[in-house]
Amino acid sequence: MSGRQIVCFDLNLFVGFMMSKEASNMVQRTSDLHWIRPPRQARTHESLERLLDVAESMLHDKDFDDIHVSEIARRAETSVAGFYRRFQDKDSLLHALHERRCEEAFATADDALCQERWSGASIAEILFAVFPFLVEILHSNEGLDRAIYQRAITNEPMRERSMKINRHVINGLSDLIFERQDEVNHPDPNTAVPFAVIQTMALVVQIYTAGIRDIFPTPMSDDKVAHELATSCLAYLGTSNPYAPCEGDRP
Hints:
Elements: H1 3-31, H2 46-58, H3 69-75, H4 80-86, H5 90-112, H6 123-140, H7 142-152, H8 156-178, H9 189-209, H10 222-237
Helix pairs in contact: 5-8, 6-9, 6-10, 7-8, 8-9, 9-10
């Protein structure tokens, strides 16, 4: 084997190693995306957390208006009087659930959208990982998010909390895209990047909290919804080849 062949062979090995390493890193950082529940303040008592956990669990099966205080208290192994020592009424419970949800959402967004996690990743790689995670979060808590969404329309404190976390997520994802602005071919990236993210966030909220998914002409799996959201965003931004196939989709 000649010296040139050895060099080429070694170079191919190196390139192959680096590609496999990068692929491994991508799998690691996407599979590591998870919802974060930070430790609560010391003043928060176990009985309060139990009431919140029970109410959140019940919202998987019932609308908030159909949940009764007596049932929450029974499942939380406390009394109705014990519930009212914690909360003035059921709406106060929803506010507490929303506060906890936002606290967890801030921690989750900081972890999922940190620049270091996505070092070396393209916009497409980021969106095709982050959007399925976002869909998973919303789908797994549709009942709670729907109750919050409905109350926030007329409740200013709840609306403001929702706006704060929405701004935080939109800014975090926009910053990741701006770091890769050379991939964006839209003539006005300063407008296009936040608009694309806001457009996607608004649509996914409508799909999973406002019930717009029920009017889809063709049923779509969560994977398909996330894939089409990412594809739409990439196409609007003008990235190269945004139309990646959605593997393993089952409506």
